[in-house]
């Protein structure tokens, strides 16, 4: 199975502009990408990047400056084997969560994102193509049906959490270290997991803040 | 295992006031509760309600008008067997998702909510107590550690999605019928699943609407 990670190399994460400068958004996007690549590798697979521009990364890079949908469909068209398409901003992804996606049988296996997106999928049916515009999760269900592919849906909060907006940063602060926290609670000798996106946010001064109804983030001045 | 569903019987879902009238919020809360009870029953367990005031429901009802934390801890204190505490607004819950929660080993098993809440948990350790204020997921990890309970975390988008705000309604419209949609795509004879919360939203005129970056809901006038 190929595991392809699309990556917007230029001006990434624009919806985080109210929380991070342009340089910071690039650095944070790179940290999330590193976390995604590490989690894929921990499942025993070698990820590859599909980037909009040349980028230095610890993985093979294909550059395709077309929009996401067209670039991904070019990969699907050229490949006979199963292909996984995994978004680069799944900062909470774990090997277990990716394992559920990669190992589930199905002509098309989808991990929906919050808000109706498609955060990761596996395409085994040769005619299946993607369309990332709009409510792509529902569109992908329909597209799989059209080509006669059996569909499976992966129910994972970690894979449903793409980090696009300021509120999403709280999820990284909450869950980015919880495996380690939980491990320390139950197995004292467990090595502490490191997640680059969490480390980056913490070093940039972000921490959790809560009011009555909702948990958000604050940043040290 | 007891399965206890806390239910705010008076003026529920105040954070949906920008989308629904008071009467509508009550009706929608009842529809979500019915979905939760049905999903629990489909796992072979009999749910019971822990309500803030007398309420007509298709399950045994205990009335306790104290705040959520105190009322739940009273249940934990009086019970020797395992107790599951399941929020009443998990409109996307399925028997599979609840099965993952109920059947996972662990002194404390937690299904976190988006934003750091605790949407469902199973307490098997006799000394564990809840505190739903603030980032309760992290507090519950720490509380389990304090009493020496082994903790497991359930990674489920369905269980992470409590329906509190207008944006959450989109999740119901997207995923409330997707099991049925997927079943119809793959197994033509499958009976169509019904979800009362989805039916209620649709009959109230809600449907999905999307702009470039985010999917929301609109309501027919």
Automatic annotation (TrEMBL), chains A, B:
Domain of life: Archaea
Gene3D superfamilies from the UniProt entry: 6.10.140.50, Spore Coat Polysaccharide Biosynthesis Protein SpsA, Chain A (3.90.550.10)
Enzyme class: transferase
Keywords associated with the record: GTP-binding, Nucleotide-binding, Nucleotidyltransferase, Transferase
Listed GO MF terms: GTP binding; phospholactate guanylyltransferase activity
Functional note: Guanylyltransferase that catalyzes the activation of (2S)-2-phospholactate (2-PL) as (2S)-lactyl-2-diphospho-5'-guanosine, via the condensation of 2-PL with GTP. It is involved in the biosynthesis of coenzyme F420, a hydride carrier cofactor.
Family: Belongs to the CofC family.
Official protein name in the record: 2-phospho-L-lactate guanylyltransferase
Organism field: Halorussus aquaticus
Gene name per UniProt: cofC
